[in-house]
């Protein structure tokens, strides 16, 4: 459904990097054996220990309540865990659509005057806030500098097409393009060699440079400013292609202070352990030093939360597959726990919205439209600050919230539009 633009990154891995590990972000249902098979040849890291084929009740309860052996109970914001525990007698379903007006985005405006490109310690250039930037601000909205055969072509683009696209740029654009940082990993060079039927070292220096810049900077296309933004495993921006604007947009997903570096996640899916993230980031040729990757007490605490996220994510993939009412109730608990940890860890981008989306789906599968509405409103709020109200996804989600509200108020049944949006037909409940 064209839902998350970080899936663009995934397409890259599917072709020029060995597929990593399946998560629920993958739209296809997966079998547990595929997950296990996918893990085995790729990771040699000790902290990627495959989960048991079916978690024990004790293990699951430990994860759901944050009590892992030898570790103190987690102290997280449980706000997002509470909805299913006690359904409010009269939920205020009008609130979420109207509050946070200060976070909404002026559609004709980006705040690129509030940022600057300058040296980032040990990272080369980076993008920094010159002033305080509130959550929800559209920091950048820019068209592609270099795009290959439409956005779907993405990182899988044929090297010949990339070079052709470069040749078609104006000289001034080529100069800007060549000012970007380039890096090509071995796997990408091998892909280029297959495309060009030529050894990497036999290519001209210009062609190697153009292709290295492309692969190091593209997320659907290469952008002059957006491609300057460095990675963090706890990013403060989320990016998305807005087809209504024909631009890539970068939104602040929390308040950003003056002087702070702006960051995005280069990785598809934040529910990953440190070594899994490192393996992926190797493709960009750097080691992340963000707060989630630092070897400090706090860094290790954060890592423990990522391990929990990974475990919960994998359990969720398994439970979706089962498709019974009991598994649905369990999946709802799991996804609420996921959302709570994501929120407490500052993972506030569209993946949090996806957790809310899943929670709404499970509530609908369990026949509870009222709870589904509350979760759908939470997803809407995430997208309000992540992509803005002019994004096609936001408009769809707003329509879904209206339809769910009509169902809750009894003026209409849960209709086919809602059913399709939450893909309720995909996993029929068997009992
Ligand atoms: Zn990191």
TrEMBL record:
Q: Where is the SET domain?
A: 113-267
Q: Name one Pfam family in it.
A: SET
Which InterPro entries does this UniProt record tie to the protein? SET_dom, SET_dom_sf, SET_domain_protein, TPR-like_helical_dom_sf
Q: Which CDD domains match?
A: SET_SMYD
Q: Which PROSITE patterns match?
A: SET
**Extent of the signal sequence:** none
Name-wise, this protein is SET domain-containing protein
Source organism of the structure:
Aspergillus hiratsukae
């Amino acid at each position: 459904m064209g839902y998350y633009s970080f899936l663009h990154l995934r397409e890259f891995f599917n072709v020029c990097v060995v597929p990593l590990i399946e998560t629920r972000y993958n739209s296809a249902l997966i079998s547990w054996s595929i997950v296990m098979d996918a893990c085995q040849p790729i990771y040699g890291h000790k902290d990627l220990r495959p989960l048991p084929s079916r978690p024990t009740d004790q293990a699951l309860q430990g994860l759901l309540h944050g009590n892992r052996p030898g570790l103190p109970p987690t102290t997280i914001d449980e706000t997002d865990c509470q909805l299913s525990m006690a359904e409010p007698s009269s939920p205020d379903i009008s609130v979420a659509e109207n509050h946070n007006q200060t976070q909404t985005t002026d559609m004709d405006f980006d705040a690129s005057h509030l940022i600057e490109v300058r040296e980032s310690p040990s990272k080369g250039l980076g993008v920094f806030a010159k002033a305080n930037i509130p959550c929800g601000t559209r920091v950048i909205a820019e068209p592609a500098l270099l795009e290959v055969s439409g956005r779907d072509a993405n990182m899988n683009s044929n090297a010949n097409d990339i070079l052709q696209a470069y040749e078609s740029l104006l000289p001034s654009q080529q100069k800007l393009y060549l000012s970007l940082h380039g890096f090509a990993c071995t796997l990408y060079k091998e892909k280029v060699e297959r495309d060009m039927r030529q050894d990497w070292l036999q290519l001209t220096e210009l062609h190697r440079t153009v292709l290295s810049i492309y692969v190091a900077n593209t997320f659907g296309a290469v952008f002059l400013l957006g491609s300057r933004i460095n990675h963090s495993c706890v990013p403060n921006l989320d990016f998305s292609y807005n087809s209504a604007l024909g631009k890539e947009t970068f939104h602040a997903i929390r308040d950003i202070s003056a002087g702070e570096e702006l960051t995005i996640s280069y990785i598809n899916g934040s529910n990953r352990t440190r070594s899994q993230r490192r393996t992926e980031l190797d493709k960009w040729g750097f080691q992340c030093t963000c707060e989630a990757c630092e070897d400090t007490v706090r860094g290790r605490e954060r890592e423990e939360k990522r391990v929990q996220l990974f475990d919960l994510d994998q359990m969720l993939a398994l439970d979706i597959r089962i498709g019974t009412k009991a598994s649905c109730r369990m999946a709802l608990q799991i996804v609420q726990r996921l959302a709570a940890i994501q929120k407490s860890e500052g993972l506030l981008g569209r993946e949090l919205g996806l957790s809310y989306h899943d929670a709404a789906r499970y509530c609908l599968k369990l026949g509870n439209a009222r709870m589904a509405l509350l979760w759908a409103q939470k997803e809407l709020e995430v997208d309000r600050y992540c992509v803005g109200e002019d994004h096609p996804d936001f408009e769809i989600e707003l329509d879904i919230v209206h339809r769910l509200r009509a169902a809750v108020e009894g003026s209409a049944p849960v209709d086919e539009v809602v059913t399709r949006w939450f893909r309720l037909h995909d996993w029929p409940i068997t009992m």
